[in-house]
Amino acid sequence: MVVLLIAVIVIAIVAYLAILYFQRSYSEAITVEKNKVEKMANESLEDQLAKISQLNLSGESLTEFETLDKGYHFLKNRELPELSELLNDLTDAVHHYQFMRVSREIKLVQQKTAGAEQHASEIKEKLDLIQTSTKQHENILKELQEKYQSLRTVLLTKNFSFGPGIDALEEKSAEIEEDFGKYTKYSESGDFVSSEEPLNKLRSDMDAIEDAVEQIPPIFKNLHNVFPEQLEELTAGIKQMKDNHCIFTTDLSAKVAEITKECQENEHNLADLNLAAASELDEQIVTEIDHVYAEIESEYAAATILGNKFQELGQFLNHAQQQQKELKIELDRLGQNYTFNNQEEERAAQLDQQLNEIQQHYTQLEQTKEKKQDLVCSTAVAQLDDDKERLTNAEKEQQAINAGISGLWKEEKDALDAVENFDTEIHRMKREVEKLNLPGLPEDYLEYFFKVSDEIEALDAELNKMKIDMAEITRSLINTQSDLDVLNNKTIEIKDSSMLAERLLQYSNRYRNRYPEVEQAYQQSLIAFEKEFAYVEALDNISQAIDTVEPGAFKRISEQFEAEKDSLNTLV
Fold it and tell me: Is 508:546 a contact under the CB 8 Å cutoff?
């Protein structure tokens, strides 16, 4: 029973708390909406509506204002009172605990309140826009009128600066007068919506005439003052150059005539107020005139230096031709005794051809000058410069060929001296070997000796021919010198090994009777020495045997032998 009572009490408390929660929550929500409605009711637009109604609006502007006025009064007199009534009903429903109804209807009221707020905001924004637009139109009209008066003043006081464009500018000015009339008609009647189109056209026409007033004078100045003087000066310059027989790579007279037509065309562009085309053609004419000036100046500069360059090349050509003549004489003389290996004669023939071509250019230019024929001076100067460079290269080639052949006689003399030295050397080796009184010489040594001897004789025979090939002889000299060095080493080896072998054979006599191995080595070395002429082998056999019984003996004897050789060489 107690438990049941406690449960009833708890349920009652929870129900009471829930009622308090919903009452408070919904009351706060209703209060928020009431505050919004009250705020909208207190924000009056009556003064603003009254001011705008005095603007004498008409047309679309008046229609829009009337719509806004009706919307505002509908909001104030209908929407807001209805919302207030609904909120009051909901307040009573909360007090009577009709929470389900309140929950259902409060959302609808909130939506309507939000809609009313948006409606009020739109009305306020559009009314502000009407007032702002009215002020803007007044300012724009004033600004455009001031700008137009300024442009009219320029047109009247400086009409001479616009040339053929003045008539079109006057027509444009008349159009602007009409634009002002249309715009003023709408703006004064208060139809600012309908005045937007003529305002845009007025602005566009005003910008166009403003651009024309700014762009036409410099273009017309060029057409009226600058270009005619320049074209007259160019025409005189072209005539003067032609009178002096200097012509151009292009027909500059035709180009000047073409530019003159372009100037006439640009006058039509100005008359039609075709400013984009006029500006573009103006720049094109400036560029074309500059190009004509540049070509005349280039030809004039070339004509000024042509004479000096012509004279300079003539002297250079004479010098190169004289050198070529001397080179060919030298080639012919040396060619009787020497074979050329670097295509000297072919290279000289190519130089002949080049010099002939340069001579042809020079002669042709000389005849043109003598006959006072027309000449493109810049082309002639370029040809002279090119021929000068070719002469410079030709002279270097002449020097290279001459350097290659001028040393042939010295190379021949050096070769003769070398062969003589070779012959002296091989005879020296022969005498030194003969002095040894050896029983004989190794077969390979003899073969190599006669090979080198034959090479020396062959070189001598080549050098004694009527026409010699120094390149081939030089290669043979190098090979023979190498072979002679090898033969010299072989000769030294025979001399040293035979003399040392004899000395060791004598030294071995003191050990032969006591040491059979020394006796055996002695006999083997003797056979190698006297029968086989293998002096190195004989030395190896006896030296090893002696070192066996007397360590270090071979080293001591060979060092003594070398010392004696050095002493003998010093005396010599």
Answer: yes
